[in-house]
Automatic annotation (TrEMBL), chain A:
Gene3D superfamilies: Cytochrome c oxidase, subunit III, four-helix bundle. Belongs to the cytochrome c oxidase subunit 3 family. It is found in: Cell membrane. It is a multi-pass membrane protein. Keywords: Cell membrane, Membrane, Transmembrane, Transmembrane helix. The chain crosses the membrane at residues 28-50, 70-91, 98-118, 138-162, 183-203. It holds the Pfam family COX3. InterPro entries: Cyt_c/ubiquinol_Oxase_su3 (IPR024791), Cyt_c_oxidase-like_su3 (IPR000298), Cyt_c_oxidase_su3-like_sf (IPR035973), Cyt_c_oxidase_su3_a-hlx (IPR013833). It comes from Pseudomonas typographi. Residues 28-206 form the Heme-copper oxidase subunit III family profile domain. This is Cytochrome o ubiquinol oxidase subunit III. Its main location: membrane.
TrEMBL record, chain B:
Signal peptide: none annotated. Belongs to the heme-copper respiratory oxidase family. It is a multi-pass membrane protein. The keyword Transmembrane applies. The chain crosses the membrane at residues 20-43, 64-81, 115-133, 145-168, 195-219, 231-261, 281-304, 316-342, 348-367, 387-409, 429-446, 458-480, 500-524, 597-614, 620-637. It is found in: Cell membrane. It comes from Pseudomonas typographi. This is Cytochrome ubiquinol oxidase subunit I. Keywords: Cell membrane, Copper, Electron transport, Heme, Iron, Membrane, Metal-binding, Respiratory chain, Transmembrane, Transmembrane helix, Transport. InterPro entries: Cyt_c_oxase-like_su1_dom (IPR023616), Cyt_c_oxase-like_su1_sf (IPR036927), Cyt_C_Oxase_1 (IPR000883), Cyt_c_Oxase_su1_BS (IPR023615). Residues 46-565 form the Cytochrome oxidase subunit I profile domain. It comes from the Bacteria.
Length: 208, 684
């Protein structure tokens, strides 16, 4: 395989060169999509930044931030990224045992669902304490930013579920591994966004 | 009963029908009659199967491109009629109410702007990029063929929303930029802004996906030897436009979605109370809006860069400078958004910085103008329709650029903002800049797509009507704006404005005549196509690879990928005697099969958006779920491609090569003659 077909991310060099090139182009396209998606988050961060003091008659950031719960969510999501990494390694080096990759992907899915559960619990709690998004510009921005990330994680979970079925039905065919590579990028990308949210919304918010 | 009605139909009721103004009723009637006529025509000629197999389910980039252009031309007709209505109202409503109620007038300027930007210019340029770019770079298809079709059908779904708003409910009265708080619930409770929000959301998502697709295609799918500095200029501008779409459409998506959250769920992003901040919307919108100007104009610059050399029979002058200028414009376009709201409270220092950044864009643009003029200098210039548009553009665009300089000066802008001077300025950029370029491209590439040329006579009539109509319609607006006439007035209380408004009205009528000429041209061209056929593929003595294939090209474009040795790749092949070579045993090609999935996703998105507009929960949710289900189900389909065999490729290719070699090569004097079958004499 010629090195020019390598792309950023974990390459799977078993397939023929033409297929490699095709997978490389697809992964390249997905990087571009992530760039565009990152911009959506950048803009939501910017809107949050301008509205963080726009609390109106509602609560201030320090009154709504639940730091222990946010820390737990961070742990769950970072752990899920780690297990996805193990799944990727299993795909590359233990391709003869697709069950191993599937097992790590299942763990990833469970961690992702646990993250979503904790997040929804937090948001419901906020709602019950009168910190609904309709209360102030600050709360609108906070809920939108967090929910946009949550929506992405939920999409990732659905995608993971579909891929688990596809591994069973199709085995580790080229289109399956290619999709898994892109899903891995998506999953790690959401991790990075979350680190931003944890820093900007939770750590900063606890002091405002 | 009312509960059931609310559940089934949301806010939809008899009141939604357009009986509030005679013109709205007529417009709805014309739309319904037009759709019925189209359906009956297809049924009578039994073309449903053909339409389904060859077009609606096609993933061929050329077919998708044609469907984009058809959408654009239909929307152009509606947009121009609305423009004429607006001009007529202003001409007659001097010290009297005129014939359009103010609310309907506001709807019309909103739909006119929304349609012309998002559903005329955007589909038109996307269509031409679709048709031409893969051919120009020697590719067999775009990188993501299905995604390409999804982009198309999302755009069509958005356009469908704007069209159906003629029949059901009323459109927004908040202008094409939809500024809150006026587009928020306390001021517009109806469905108008919701139609606007979801139409734009669908089309902006479609455009983002198009950008991703074409950037990937241009980076990854170029033929062997097609280095970046050998890319045709149109491909360069397509790349820059794609990059702009990737970065500039998300701000629009975010702006419309946040506005939707305000409207539907009572959030406080842009409201007047509880910490809302409308400046966030203004910034988000113009973070999109200014790069959008260059999304619209760069492809036209690319088209002119193809048209000038071809119809001057010369190499493009200053290729490198044109590439650098295009890149400079791409980068600078993100640094000037604030000039759209100099008057909204920034400090003088901030305004000065953005004013200077704005003026800087004139430098690369000026470079381009000189390059194009020098391309014509001492060339063998043929004043055919594309070159008429290009020449009109050269003269008129400079005027628009100069008035842009005045508006970029903040103190002057304080006098001119929100006057008809601004209206004249941006029409001056978008009609000669964007529309003339797109029409030049339409005329230039038409024979490539359909195998016959467009009628020259009616094309010239249309071009001259467009040029004169533009001058008459918009030059008076500069004067009126400088004299202090605000934009978007439905009634005018200043008799002194009347003469200039009537001149503008005459211009609007000429512009309408221009569009009518385009329709006549198309009909005449189809009826007389036996006199203008050019199936051999090269009617204009083209320089780039799209002409190195028969017209229309096969689905796979090239039986063997062309090798590129020069910037004017096809001209080089012709000069070296290497064009039109038979092939022996080409490698088989894998091409995507047709699929209705993209069409289903578009239809589901339309249902979802319509449900959101009218608060019909089951439609909104069902549409979204159906679209997601389409994607999931499709991902299990492993028979998405089919192989074109080597023998089939060789037979088709060699038949074409034999036809070319048997044909008489015509010189440029016979360019418009029936003898021009698409083989050009290699020298002047």
């Amino acid at each position: 395989m010629s090195p020019r077909h390598l792309h950023p991310g974990l390459n799977h060099p078993r397939s023929p060169e033409a297929e490699q090139a095709e997978v490389g182009s697809s992964v390249f396209g997905f990087w571009i999509f992530l760039m565009s998606d990152a911009l959506v988050f950048a803009l939501l961060f910017a809107v949050y930044g301008t509205q963080v003091h726009a609390t109106g008659s509602g609560p201030h950031p320090a009154q709504v931030v639940n730091l222990p719960s946010a820390l737990l969510q961070t742990g769950l999501l970072l752990a899920s990224s780690y297990t996805f990494g193990l799944a990727s390694l299993a795909l590359k080096f233990k391709a003869e045992r697709p069950g191993l990759a599937s097992a790590w992907l299942c763990v990833t899915l469970l961690l992702g669902l646990a993250f979503l559960g904790a997040e929804v619990h937090d948001l419901v709690d906020l709602y019950q304490r009168g910190a609904a998004p309709q209360r102030s510009g600050f709360l609108s921005a906070l809920h939108t930013l967090v929910c946009m990330h949550g929506l992405h994680v939920a999409t990732g979970c659905l995608w993971l579920l579909v891929m688990l079925v596809q591994i069973r039905v199709m085995g580790l065919a080229s289109e399956v591994t290619s999709r898994l590579m892109r899903l891995a990028l998506f999953w790690h990308f959401l991790d990075i966004i979350w680190v931003g949210i944890f820093t900007v919304v939770y750590l900063q918010g606890a002091r405002l | 009963m009312s509960d059931l009605h609310g559940w089934l139909l949301g806010r939809l009721s008899w009141d939604a029908l357009p009986f509030y103004s005679a013109i709205a009723t007529v417009a709805a009637g014309v739309l319904v009659a037009g759709v019925l006529a189209a359906v009956l025509f297809i049924a009578a000629t039994r073309r449903w199967g053909y339409l389904w197999r060859e077009w609606l389910t096609s993933l061929d980039h050329k077919r998708i491109g044609v469907m984009y252009v058809v959408l654009a031309l239909v929307m152009l007709v509606r947009g121009v009629i609305e423009g004429v209505l607006l001009r007529t109202q202003q001409a007659v409503a001097i010290n009297n109410p005129g014939f359009l109620p103010p609310e309907h007038f506001s709807q019309l300027f909103t739909t006119h702007g929304t349609i012309m930007i998002f559903f005329m210019a955007m589909p038109f340029l996307t269509g031409l990029i679709n048709i031409v770019v893969p051919l120009q770079i020697g590719a067999r298809d775009v990188r993501f063929a299905l995604l390409n079709a999804i982009s198309l059908w999302l755009t069509v779904a958005g356009a469908g929303l704007v069209m159906i708003s003629l029949v059901l409910g009323r459109f927004s009265t908040g202008g094409w930029s939809g500024y809150p708080p006026y587009t928020e619930p306390p001021y517009q409770t109806g469905v108008g802004p919701d139609y606007w929000i979801w139409a734009l959301t669908l089309s902006s998502i479609g455009a983002t996906l198009t950008g991703i697709n074409f950037a990937t295609t241009l980076y990854k799918e170029r033929a062997p030897g097609m280095a970046f500095m050998r890319l045709p200029l149109f491909a360069w501008t397509a790349l820059c436009t794609s990059i702009l779409m990737i970065f500039a459409m998300p701000p629009l998506t975010v702006a419309t979605l946040l506005l939707a959250l305000d409207r539907y769920l009572g959030f406080h992003f842009f409201s007047n109370t509880d910490g809302g901040n409308l400046m966030n919307y203004i910034n988000l919108f113009w973070l999109f809006g200014h790069p959008e100007v260059y999304i619209l104009v760069l492809p036209s610059f690319g088209i002119f860069s193809e048209v000038f050399p071809t119809f001057s029979a010369k190499r493009l002058y200053g290729y490198t400078s044109l590439v650098l200028a295009t890149l400079a414009i791409t980068v600078l376009s993100f640094t000037v958004w604030l000039h759209h709201f100099f008057t909204m409270g920034q400090s003088a220092g901030v305004n000065a910085a953005f004013g200077i950044a704005t003026m800087l864009i004139a430098i690369p643009t000026g470079v381009k103008i000189y390059d194009w003029m020098l391309t014509m200098f001492r060339g063998r210039v043929r004043l055919t329709v594309p070159l008429i548009y290009a020449s009109l553009f050269l003269m008129l665009f400079v005027v628009g650029g100069l008035t842009g300089m005045t508006l970029a000066t903040p103190p002057v802008d304080f006098q001119l903002h929100n006057t008809t001077y601004l209206v004249a300025h941006f029409h001056n950029m978008l009609i000669p800049g964007t529309l003339f370029g797109l029409l030049a491209g339409y005329t230039y590439w038409f024979p490539k797509v359909f195998g016959f040329r467009l009628n020259e006579h009616w094309g010239r009539v249309a071009a001259v009507c467009f040029g004169l109509g533009f001058l008459l319609a918009f030059m008076p607006l500069y004067l009126l704006g400088a004299a202090g006439m605000p934009r978007r007035l439905s009634v005018i209380h200043q008799s002194a404005f009347a003469p200039a408004l009537w001149v503008a009205e005459a211009g609007a009528v000429l512009l309408f005549a221009a569009v009518a000429s385009l329709v006549v041209q198309l009909i005449v061209s189809i009826r007389q196509r036996d006199h203008t056929r050019a199936p051999l593929g090269d009617p204009w003595n083209g320089r780039t690879l799209e002409w190195a294939s028969p017209s229309p090209p096969p689905a796979y474009n090239f039986a063997v990928l062309p090798a590129v040795h020069d910037r004017d790749a096809f001209m080089w092949l012709k000069e070296q005697g290497q064009a039109y070579r038979a092939v022996v045993q080409p490698a088989p090609i894998n091409m995507p099969r047709n699929t209705p999935v993209a069409l289903f996703i578009g239809a589901a998105s339309f249902v979802a958006a319509f449900g959101l507009v009218w608060h019909i929960g089951w439609a909104a949710l069902g549409g979204v779920l159906a679209a997601v289900a389409c994607v999931v189900v499709r991902s299990f389909n492993r028979h998405t491609h089919q192989t074109v065999s080597s023998a089939e490729l060789a037979a088709e290719h060699n038949r074409w090569v034999a036809a070319v070699q048997a044909a008489e090569a015509v010189n440029r004097d016979l360019e418009l003659d029936p003898r021009n079958r698409g083989r050009a004499e290699p020298t002047l």
